[in-house]
Amino acid sequence: MSPDLDLDALIDDPATRVVVCCGSGGVGKTTTSAALAVRAAERGRSVVVLTIDPARRLAQALGLDELSNDPAPVKETTGELAAMMLDMRRTFDEMVESHAPPERAQKIIENPFYQTISSSFSGTQEYMAMEKLGQLAGAGTWDLVVVDTPPSRSALDFLDAPQRMSRFLDGRMIRLLAAPARAGGRGLRKIVEAGFGLFAKAVGSIIGGQMLQDASAFVQAFDTLFGGFAERAEKTYALLRSPGTAFLVVAAPEPDALREAAYFTERLSSEDMPLAGLVLNRTHPVLAPVSAARARAGAEQVGGPGSQIAAAVLRLHADRADLHDREEHLLTRFSAAHPGVPVVRVPALAGDIADLDGLRRVGALLAGAGEPGAAATVG
Question: Which residues form the signal peptide (predicted)?
Answer without folding.
Answer: none
